[in-house]
From TrEMBL:
Domain PASTA: 372-439, 440-507
Pfam families: PASTA, Pkinase
Reactions it catalyzes: L-seryl-[protein] + ATP = O-phospho-L-seryl-[protein] + ADP + H(+); L-threonyl-[protein] + ATP = O-phospho-L-threonyl-[protein] + ADP + H(+)
Keyword Transmembrane assigned: yes
Residue span, Protein kinase domain: 11-271
Lineage top rank: taxon: Bacteria
Protein name: non-specific serine/threonine protein kinase
Location of the region described as Disordered in the Swiss-Prot/TrEMBL record: 323-343
Entry GO MF terms: ATP binding; protein serine/threonine kinase activity
Length: 507
């Protein structure tokens, strides 16, 4: 997208304001309602995935129902020339990631206040049955008045299928991803709560709890490693506030808060003197339950068509599982019947062993998922014929996707106007690039605007490319600002960018 380009004759692009793993964001102006908006264009390398686009459209439509002061409002969704886009409230400010970096350390009352606002927004979404799935500081905007607003409800689901295949974009999200999402399980309210706990950790410490060079290494830490204590970073943090982090980020979803409202209620009193002597929260599941490896759940991670590599990995996983079951399960059952209650260290060692084995298997699975195609850049096809464009794309191991023809007075007939993704964008080898081809100058049948409101007519026609002028006449026959006559006859076919219409209006 370029400045002054207009989407569907309504949203005039002003400038880009950001780019993420799934979308590019632009500041735009709504020509109908005369307000600034944010337009988010979904990543173009998703456009050929019909199921992903349908999920995006369904969830984004649901997100338009979310009206809450702590949620960025979604005004409109649409599609033009193969581009799926969202039109949202424009928030003037910065995202929470940047806010933490610029303002750290944040005063504890401010941390509690901001997190309280975030929890209110997520709670409203959960009441509507919408799970965010990708909560992170980059998806929380702080406006110029210090209010928190959550964005990107409904977008994460569209990317769920490919979240572990784009190494460059997943690391930012996997730092906040729950252990069950790492394993490919369906996200629940407790998954959002885990992500909220990680966000709270970062607000208190200025750091994420787990870091690594790859998404795999970070994901395994979320599943296997205990969260660092926030009090190790700052001894002034009350135990009650640390407990909120620990409970929200429990490895087992059943040990987390039952819902966001419960977490918000607990957070609200964390700085109260009455909770100054609170004991440290300890997750029950790690010491009281034996972890069972679920072979079906792991196999679901490999539900793609079986290549030689897939079959090989499945065989390794299945053999490993058979070995574990053969060597450990019967003994575990027998020992469970006779083991005295006080022998907790042995139980903890067994749990740790199970974790280590599961982490090994998980590493194999995710490493396989991450063996994605090489990245290439979309070549510049502007001005080429369709055949020339096809040849140039094939040299980059890219295919031709949807062909769209548009009116264009600057590009020759049947020549490429642009590509989606745009030239220079990094994409995976093998994807299909949508191509927009010129069908010549735009033509337009002029309507009869006599009696219409001049300001609204002017906005609509200028959005289509017309130059509009006016003459004012004092008259009692028409209301003020009503069009009395026009110098271009109704029904005349013209090219908007080359046409000036002068209206005579009542004064």
């Amino acid at each position: 997208m370029t400045p002054n380009q207009t989407l569907n004759g309504r949203y005039k692009i002003i400038r880009p304001v950001g780019e993420g793993g799934m979308a590019s964001v632009y500041l735009a102006h709504d020509l109908i309602l005369d307000r600034d908006v944010a337009v988010k264009l979904v990543r173009f390398d998703m456009q050929d995935d019909a199921s992903a686009v349908r999920r995006f459209q369904r969830e984004a439509l649901s997100a338009t129902e979310l009206v809450h002061p702590n949620i960025v409002s979604v005004y409109d969704i649409g599609e033009e020339h193969g581009m799926n886009y969202l039109v949202m409230e424009y928030v003037e400010g910065k995202d929470l990631k940047r806010y933490i970096k610029d303002e750290f350390p944040l005063p504890l009352p401010q941390v509690v206040n901001l997190m309280g606002q975030i929890l209110c927004g997520v709670q409203a979404a959960h009441r509507h049955g919408i799970i965010h799935r990708d909560l992170k500081p980059q998806n929380v905007l702080i406006d110029k008045h210090g209010n928190a607003k959550i964005t990107d409800f409904g977008i994460a689901i569209a990317n769920q299928q490919s979240s572990f295949t784009r190494t460059n974009t997943v690391i930012g999200s996997v730092q906040y991803l729950s252990p069950e999402q790492v394993r490919g399980h369906v996200a629940t309210q407790q998954s959002d709560i885990y992500s909220l706990g990680i966000i709270l950790f970062e607000m208190l410490t200025g750091k994420v709890p787990f870091e690594g060079e790859t998404a795999v290494s970070i994901a395994i830490k979320h599943y296997q490693d205990q969260l660092p204590l926030v009090t190790d970073f700052n001894h002034q943090i009350p135990q009650a506030l640390e407990n909120v982090v620990l409970k929200a980020t429990a490895k087992n979803p059943t040990d987390r808060y039952k819902n966001v409202a419960e977490m918000a209620l607990d957070l609200k009193t964390t700085l109260s003197p009455q909770r100054a002597q609170e004991s440290k929260f300890v997750e029950d599941s790690l010491t009281e339950h034996t972890i069972v490896l679920d072979q079906k759940a792991i196999n679901r991670q490999l539900d793609e068509p079986d290549s030689e590599q897939t079959r090989s990995i499945k065989m390794q996983v299945n053999e490993k599982l058979k070995s574990i079951k053969k060597n450990h399960q019967p003994a575990a059952k027998t020992e469970e019947m006779h083991r005295p209650k006080h022998r907790h260290p042995l139980r903890r060692r067994a749990a740790f062993m199970a974790f280590a084995i599961l982490a090994f298997i998980l590493g194999i699975l995710i490493a396989f998922k991450l063996s994605s195609p090489q990245m290439v850049r979309v070549p510049n096809l502007h001005g080429l014929t369709q055949n020339q464009a096809t040849t140039k794309l094939s040299k980059e191991n890219l295919g031709v996707g949807k062909i769209t023809k548009v009116a264009d007075d600057k590009t020759g007939y049947n020549k490429v106007v642009k590509t989606l993704p745009e030239n220079g964008k990094a994409v995976q080898e093998g994807i299909k690039v949508n191509v927009v081809i010129s069908k010549g100058p735009n033509s337009f049948d002029v309507d009869n605007y006599v009696g219409s409101d001049y300001p609204s007519t002017k906005r609509q026609l200028e959005a289509k490319g017309f130059t509009i002028k006016k003459k004012e006449v004092v008259t009692n026959r028409f209301d003020n600002n009503r069009i009395i006559s026009q110098d271009v006859v109704a029904g005349q076919v013209v090219v908007p960018r080359l046409t000036t219409i002068t209206f005579t209006i009542a004064k």
